[in-house]
Amino acid sequence: MLHQRFVPAPPDLQPWLEATVVVDCPAELAQSQFPAMVTSMLVVRRAGQVICHGAQVPAAAWMSASTCATVYAHQGRVHAVGLLLRPEAAAALFAGACGAVNAIRPMAELAGTRWAAVERGVLAAADDDARLDVLCQFIRATAAPPSDCEVRRLQALALLTAACRADEGAGQHMGLSKRQFERRFVAHWGMAPKQFQVIARLNSTLWHALANAPSGQGAELAVDQGYYDQSHMGRDVRRLAGQPLQALVQDTRTPLSTHWPLQIGAQTQPKPLHKTCQESQSSAGARRR
Fold it and tell me: Which CATH number fits domain 3-147: 2.60.40, 2.40.160, 1.10.260, 2.60.120?
């Protein structure tokens, strides 16, 4: 039986984390399938091997945002703990994450020499809750003053706010032309603002469809998520998640679902992009006051 556990992010880390997660996949589950995502993941694997695009995934790795569905093949039982990072968090915490998309980085490469002690702490911890605590403390220590991580996070939120504006107005309030703004956005996230918006909408759609199944799969969901119609939504889901929405929802109801990441997402339900923009505007207003 597949065991996966969603744990809400500690209140002080909610600006940085969508959630913390424990996953224990039996050997019978041959793979995990992820949709395109605007969030990224920090994962420490305690058992098993994972292969992506023919290469072995490091036991402690950061998986970037992605622009397409991704399949991770398993070898043996896979037991891991991890953090789901908010879109604006990764590059603010780790310089090497800036501009990375469809990428996997060893945490030792991303975080430097201080990571070795963190990984030892995770592996030595008595249980999964203690392991997650070690990872959360690592994020706290990384973001704490005198680090400028919080400044970089707010700058990233400002870019997201600009991305929500009309195409011609994007970036103008930052003193940038549309082309300059798009270059800066791509340098930060590795994808254009429009592509980010499409994937963020897909993520919100999938999470809401699963959380509200079977009622949350039709025309009303499409309208709520900002699609022209149900056909438009269906095309995006097939293109970016790999299967029709109904098939994805049905698969998550099976005991050994390769789409278990969608089950986690349904519990997490990250803020839609327009909510993230509102948060950024509120933060900017608070700083001005």
Answer: 2.60.120
